[in-house]
Q: What sequence folds into this?
């Protein structure tokens, strides 16, 4: 195979001046942990920016998705027995073209992912395929929806289908922090939402 001459890079980290200052600040104040002024400020700024009530900072997008799916599972099916995930014995509809963290979050909670096909316009979950999936599996109550490469999925259509079937949405906005859908930030449409600050995820920022 020939090497491609022209490449379109997905994303590379960008520095804006103050990054080292805040890392140094955390070192100087000895807040090298899961709490501290910087973490509080980051949670506040993100919540304000996307326009949601609260944000909780975890170690990465994968951990946020896991927590989101766990909370959704507990809301739907109650507290699991010890050593069991909240989705034990349940199917969950998931975007099929995505980074594996989207789907891993379901596996961590012992759920079974059912992949929903992708449509051509946004490369995200196809509402037509989702509706069909509900016909086949009417008991499903959770959908994990990704916005791939910073491009929002067809949220209105997908939300309408989920509402009709009484299903919750976990929104994987790991790659779409800063992207808007009809003027509203992604990461605010689901019942639980996750974003990521992994340098290679900030496509739309
Ligand atoms: C769609 C998607 N979901 C989740 C993640 C996980 O985010 P993180 O790398 O911060 O764990 C990524 C990227 O890594 C991603 O691309």
A:
């Amino acid at each position: 195979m020939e090497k491609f001459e022209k490449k379109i890079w997905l994303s590379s980290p960008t520095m804006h001046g103050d990054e080292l200052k805040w890392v140094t600040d955390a070192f100087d104040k000895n807040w090298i942990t899961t709490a501290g002024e910087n973490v509080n400020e980051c949670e506040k700024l993100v919540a304000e920016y996307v326009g949601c009530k609260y944000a909780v900072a975890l170690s990465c997008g994968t951990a946020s998705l896991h927590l989101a799916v766990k909370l959704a599972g507990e809301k739907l099916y109650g507290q699991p027995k010890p050593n069991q995930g909240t989705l034990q014995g349940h199917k969950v509809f998931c975007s099929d073209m995505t980074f594996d963290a989207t789907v891993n979050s379901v596996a961590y909670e012992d759920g079974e992912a059912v992949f929903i096909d992708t449509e051509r316009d946004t490369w995200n979950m196809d509402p037509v395929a989702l509706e069909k999936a509900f016909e086949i599996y009417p008991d499903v109550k959770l959908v994990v929806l990704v916005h791939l490469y910073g491009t929002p999925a067809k949220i209105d259509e997908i939300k309408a289908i989920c509402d009709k079937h009484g299903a919750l949405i976990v929104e994987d906005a790991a790659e779409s922090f800063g992207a808007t859908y009809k003027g509203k930030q992604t990461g605010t449409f689901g019942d639980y939402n996750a974003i990521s600050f992994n340098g290679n995820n900030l496509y739309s920022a």
Q: What stands out?
A: The mean pLDDT is 94. The pocket of pyridoxal-5'-phosphate is lined by residues 60-62, 65, 98-99, 101-102, 146, 172, 174-175, 196, 198, 201 (CB under 6 Å). The longest strand covers residues 91-95.
